[in-house]
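Feature request disguised as a bug: please show the residue count (275) next to Transketolase in the output. Example input:
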Amino acid sequence: MRDHKGLNEITCSIRKDIVSMIHGAKSGHPGGSLSAVEILTALYFDEMNIDPTNPKMEDRDRFVLSKGHAAPVLYATLAHKGYFDKEELKGLRKTGRMLQGHPDMKGTPGVEMSTGSLGQGFSVACGMAMASKLDNAPWRVYALLGDGECQEGIVWEAAMSAAHYKLDNMTAFLDYNGLQIDGNTDDVMSLGSIVDKFKAFGWNVIEIDGHDFDQIFAALDMAKSTVGQPTMIVAKTIKGRGVSFMENQAGWHGNAPSDEHLRIALEELGGAFHE
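Example output, currently without the count:
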């Protein structure tokens, strides 16, 4: 039986750290970081075979944050898991500090791939899954994409390749919050039926509420039991989840909260930075 209460407490702490670290940096991407918290919490605190004391463990599962601008959710998750001290979060985007604006695999323990150019992380994740297959290795690969990211052609080249090579050790999440930097994804460049698209490209597709742990874990179990196909979990989420004035607001894609915004956000989330 999974400890949902414990997982929910972790998500609350991670959300507090996300808004606090972006406030401290005076730049960053809160909206799409907050929408993915439950997904990363489920992966890092239950699903994946990982060891924070040995980040390069040979048979570890791999996670790639393809939408690299959502680095704050990855950093906060890694810190809470124990990959590095939580005090490092206060150095987000600061010169000479470890946590860059986008993930850096050379400088940050637990980061598997340097990402930022949209679509490339997904492509590399598929390559990792292929490497695991070629080596007959047990480890699995997980990736997180944004819905706006799926407007990039490289996403579909990778999707086609993963299906062709039957990478059933590959599970991707689509953070389907319906918003990107310029507004609604349907208005900027409609994705049509993203579910039908991935099915047409040969993927096993599962639709869930991306904030519901029961649905997340059920989808992950289904993915592991699927043979001969990679799995795309289309997770319906709310951009800015947990902070009322950020929820479903495209303007919070890449803006930092002011002092007053931070105060309100932390009050809603139930505490102060690292409390």
